[in-house]
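ENTRY TYPE: paired fold submission
RECORD: A
CONTENT: sequence, then structure tokens
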Amino acid sequence: MMRIQSSDASFQTVFRDLLNRGKMDMEHVSVIVKGLIDDIRSNQDEALVEHIEKFDRWSPKDGSALRIQTNDMKAAYEALEPNLKSALHLAYDRIRAYHEKQLPRSWFDTEANGTILGQKVTPVDCAGLYIPGGKAAYPSSLLMNVIPAQVAGVEHIIVCTPTPDNEPNALLLAACHLCGVSEVFKVGGASAIAAMAYGTQTIPKVDVITGPGNIFVATAKKMVFGEVNIDMIAGPSEIGILADETANARHIAIDLLSQAEHDEMASSILITTSQELANQTAIEIEIWLKQLPREVIARKSIDERAAIIVTKTMKEAVDLMNKIAPEHLEVVTVNPFELLPSIKHAGAIFLGPNTPEAIGDYVAGPNHTLPTGGTARFYSPLGVENFMKKSSIIAFSRQAINEIGEACALIANTEGLGAHEASIRCRLDK
């Protein structure tokens, strides 16, 4: 049964483990990943073909065989059952509407002396999206990555996804057609990240890479950062729940399991002020587990990486959750909005008993690509700005440079940069 821990003196060891949950041992795979990246940089499509033969158990004849044809995407979309097609359209519309509100704007400000300062916001030219397709394929992740790139105005979007045994996921292909994506490649793992970062004869070099993946993907993204931008380095999925005595234990239990079923390394953490809720939730988890198709995965996650913590006050509970900084945070209390100002670190916050994390995975609208392992302390969810960059705008009038140029020249002189100083002084009125 899921462990229940009071926040007493012996609690610190348990809590330290929770804080370290996102630590990925990248060191033990870094040599392998570096080898794969170097091979792609040197041998391009030839290396891709070899990697796919080794890892995905099929043999492309050359780089052209890696591309998924748009006719296949269209056929997959047209074969969808009407209810599923409608659900995908609902998700697309809601995700797009939410991300359109994120779109940053260029701005300009004119000072009295004629100085114009501003910011120009432009999309990157090419975005590379990695969509998992190994143990499971996630069409929802395709929507969550493509749509903000489209809203940003990215003209060239490519998708890489692994296809073990050369069997693309039909629902993923349908989602590609729905989004209007035309360049989709059957490449996965670190090889896909390297191909998008450096380019091959078939896969173009991109400016930014986004999307979740396993430790090999995460390590590769970390290694190519700087050659391209990345969204974040994401680890196993996780959920934190803050709850009081008003919460429904059966609902809390299945919400915890909704993350545990993702991965044996997923983390599920309940912090509550109610001992009764803690006890009942542990019982309900055992009941739910027996009903899950992915019971083996979920049970290992619950046994090894889950916890129920009972605190004396809700303030203590919130303080602990802020230290954990979970990817997903549910707040199931008598008045969850009262706690919102004190919640500082979480990827996405789900408020109230009718807002399970799962609604955010598919149709709520906000992005489900979120920071994990405590990185919500400094990372944000994937959004439109991940596909855009800013340029500063500066335009000085003659009056303006005469007014403040002397101060600039003085600072340049102090730093010993004579050309800087001269470039200012030669423009000043004598």
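RECORD: B
CONTENT: sequence, then structure tokens
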Amino acid sequence: MIGFDTLMDAAERRLDGLPLENLRVRAGGRAWDIAAVRDQDRLLAAAGDWTPFPFGVLLWESALVLGDVLPKAGLVRGGPVLELGAGTGLAGLVAAGQGARVVQTDHSFEALALCRRNAVANGVTGLEQRLGDWSAWSDDTACDVVIGADILYEPALYGDILRVLERVVRPGGVAVLTDPGRTHAGRFIYGLRAAGWTVGVERRMVAALPPCEVGAMVKIDVIEARRT
């Protein structure tokens, strides 16, 4: 069986075949240098036959908003944090910058390798990367805070995500998720409430990232769900 480190090293090499750009963004009160793919069409051209497809190497507005929310909420200082669908790793970097011990998970080794690369580029420690498949979750690590940016893209996965949250969030703990206002995300929120979680939703309007035209705005929902 091929080891995790070997697979991560292979994914790191595969990243060099993607149209990554070094982006300077602000989140959580500071600037970050994030390697990411800016244009989804270019990613499709470069990795169209990859399985799983590495959508996580794109930088999404939801990640910027989640990064802004974490310090203001005061949730992540010093404690263990689990990041679902880490992608470029930006939100996890913000949490680690607040003193949290962060486990970043994704189902794509390329995304995990990019998380590791971005952590090194920003001089941030206290992060660990692990493979995470919501439909076959095997990690029993419990924590008080789970974060995830733009993970509610597929309604067929909502049951799996809820089961992961029920498995890893301690009673009294919280999940903070950001989503670009998808209508069907309401089904996930309903499922949380039906399972006994206390859920609040705040909508924010933020500037769209390139390649969207200058001045374009997108709506991002901040979903804070506390387990009772």
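NOTES ON RECORD B: The mean pLDDT is 94. Residues 4-226 form a domain with the Rossmann fold fold (CATH 3.40.50.150).
STATUS: closed
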